[in-house]
């Protein structure tokens, strides 16, 4: 019987990351549940994963620190001796109106890029030797903001555009032994936008977003997790792809409303 595959998911204590790591556990993977601040959430997610009969380790780490990235890879290698899947999900933003250029400073760009782009690069680099041995895969959680330039802030959108380019570069340089792809959701049904809305305002925003989409819905964290699992564990001939998941909203560009 083959050994279970091993996955590391960064930023996995809540939201998309939590859904992804639970889904990979359901698929039979031992998992490293990474968190930076929310240990309680990470422990809860790990318990859910263990309920599927797999092993789960909760590991603190800030992906903007190269030493922490090396340490996270080491957690998986010490426990199981292999890494088959890396999901770079950890991400941060700074909410700012796009028209208010003074709302963002250089420090904001540096903090966002440190996690969303550099962190993904450093985490991938730390896992590459083991991923190469396993003929493994990397899935980056990006955003359709990287194509549209819109979102929580221009700095965030720019970081996701850079992450998309990083995905393409790594897919080229790490082939043929490691596949690298990205999932690029539009708005996802989480509390990501809660800091800029009242509870009622957030619900109304979600409703308007769904109504504007050709599929008349917004993606859920489970939708994203399903796509990640396919790219991570299947899709053997797929690399360098940026999978947009926005219920068809990109099809409405240029329409009068």
Structural features, described:
This protein has 257 residues and is α/β, with parallel strands linked by helices. The protein has one domain: 3-Layer(aba) Sandwich (Rossmann fold), CATH 3.40.50.720. It is 47% helix and 14% strand. The protein has eight helices and seven strands; from the N terminus they run βαβαβαβαβααβααβ. The protein has helices at 15-26, 39-50, 66-80, 106-134, 145-148, 154-174, 199-212, 221-233, and strands spanning 6-9, 30-35, 56-60, 85-88, 137-141, 179-185, 242-245. It has a seven-stranded parallel sheet, with helices on both faces. The chain is globular and about 55 Å long. It starts with 5 loop residues before the first strand and ends in a 12-residue tail after the last strand.
Topology:
Blueprint: E1 6-9, H1 15-26, E2 30-35, H2 39-50, E3 56-60, H3 66-80, E4 85-88, H4 106-134, E5 137-141, H5 145-148, H6 154-174, E6 179-185, H7 199-212, H8 221-233, E7 242-245
Helix pairs in contact: 1-2, 1-8, 3-4, 4-6
């Amino acid at each position: 019987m083959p050994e279970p595959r091993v996955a590391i998911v960064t930023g996995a204590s809540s939201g998309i990351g939590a859904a992804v790591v639970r889904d990979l556990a359901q698929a039979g993977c031992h998992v490293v549940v990474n968190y930076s601040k929310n240990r309680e959430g990470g422990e809860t997610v790990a318990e859910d994963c263990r309920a599927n009969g797999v092993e789960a380790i909760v590991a603190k780490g800030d992906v903007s620190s190269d030493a922490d990235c090396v340490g996270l890879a080491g957690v998986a290698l010490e426990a199981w001796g292999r890494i088959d899947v890396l999901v770079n999900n950890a991400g941060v933003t700074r909410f700012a109106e796009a028209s208010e250029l003074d709302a963002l400073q250089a420090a904001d760009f540096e903090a966002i890029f440190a996690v969303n782009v550099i962190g993904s690069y450093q985490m991938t680099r730390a896992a590459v030797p083991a991923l190469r041995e396993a003929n493994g895969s990397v899935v980056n959680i990006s955003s359709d903001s990287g194509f549209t330039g819109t979102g929580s802030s221009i700095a965030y959108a720019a970081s996701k555009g850079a992450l998309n380019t990083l995905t393409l570069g790594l897919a080229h340089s790490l082939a043929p032994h490691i596949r690298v792809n990205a999932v690029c959701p539009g708005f996802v049904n989480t509390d990501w936008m809660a800091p800029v809305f009242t509870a009622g305002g957030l619900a109304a925003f979600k409703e308007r977003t769904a109504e504007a989409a050709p599929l008349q819905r917004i993606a859920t964290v489970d939708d994203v997790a399903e796509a990640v699992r396919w790219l991570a564990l299947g899709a053997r001939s797929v690399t360098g792809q940026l999978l947009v998941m926005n219920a068809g909203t990109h099809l409405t560009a240029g329409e009068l409303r």
